[in-house]
Structure formats: C-alpha cells, structure tokens
Amino acid sequence: MEWFVVISGCSGGGKSTLLAELGRRGHPIVEEPGRRIVKQELREGGTALPWKDERAFSHRAIAMALDDRAAATALNGWVFFDRSLVDAAAFLQHVTHEPVLTSLAQSHRYHHTVFLTPPWPEIYVNDPERRHDMEAAEAEYSRLLEAYPMLGYKVSILPRVSVAERADMIERALADESHCSGPMEGQ
C-alpha cells in the first residue's frame, strides 16, 4: 500500500523512539512484531523466541506482520510501521536458507521508500526483548540493506540526529513526494 511507510534498520538504532515521535505528531503507528512476540512469549513461558526457536519466531513475526497490514487498511493517512513483513521474511530466509523473501514480500507491498536507521553504537542497549549483541544487530542491518533494494524499494538511510530531526525529515520527504505526484491513492 502506498501509504504504508516502513521504518526499519538496525536494532537499537532508534526506530521505536522515532515511531513514538511520529505517533505523538498524530500519525498512526504499528509497533514492531518482534518485540510484541517476545513480550508475549516471555509472559506466557513460550519458546517462539529468537534466542530459542528462530524458525517459530520468524513464522509468528510473518503472521503478525500480515495481520498488522490487514488491520492498517482501516487507518487514514500515512501509517508508519516499525519493521515490516520484509524484515520477518528476510529473517526466516536467513534462518532456513529457503527462498521465501521474494514471493512473500512482493505480494504485500509497502510505500516505495523505506527509511532505515543505521547502526548507532552510542545508543545501542540490551533489554529483556533485545538480547543479541551489536554484531548481530549489524548483520541484521546488512541483510535488510540488501533485501529492500532487491525487492524494488528505495532506501533512505536516516542520519544519526535527534528524533525530532528524523521525524521532520520523514514528514518532509513524504510531503514533497505527495506534492510532486498529487494525492496518494487511498487518502
């Protein structure tokens, strides 16, 4: 969907903080599937965790990303996603080496520009839902930096600036694009 905007990139790169700022500005946001799954699994004693059962975690993330997309069709304006189906499919492909990314991600499109947060070691922290180290986060970022363009998305790497500046940049880029192409379908 042209008005579904993905913010992805490196774990610990400021995505969730940026989404919170966009939400504060009145935009609908969709929280990251992975964090929601981990919280639920930890609360319920489940094993579909990236450090216990990567395959089960990946399948749950794909299902949740598809559900999120379906639910978001009822929202108006730009809808910002903290990660996307592409992230989940790229992780599953990394884990299983099965070519699932192209077929799954091509049939469920997002806005053609994806905003990526690069590795930012100075703000990276572990927490109960993020147990991997910076090296694993950087490897994930590299996979996404390859996956999105391979699927035909334009990647815009966000600079390491304040959250307000990042949100301003995204809003400006989308506004400029809307002015150039006229009203967006579905708006």
Automatic annotation (TrEMBL):
Residues 5-166 form the NadR/Ttd14 AAA domain. This is AAA family ATPase. Transmembrane segments: none annotated. SUPFAM superfamilies: P-loop containing nucleoside triphosphate hydrolases (SSF52540). InterPro entries: NadR/Ttd14_AAA_dom (IPR038727), P-loop_NTPase (IPR027417).
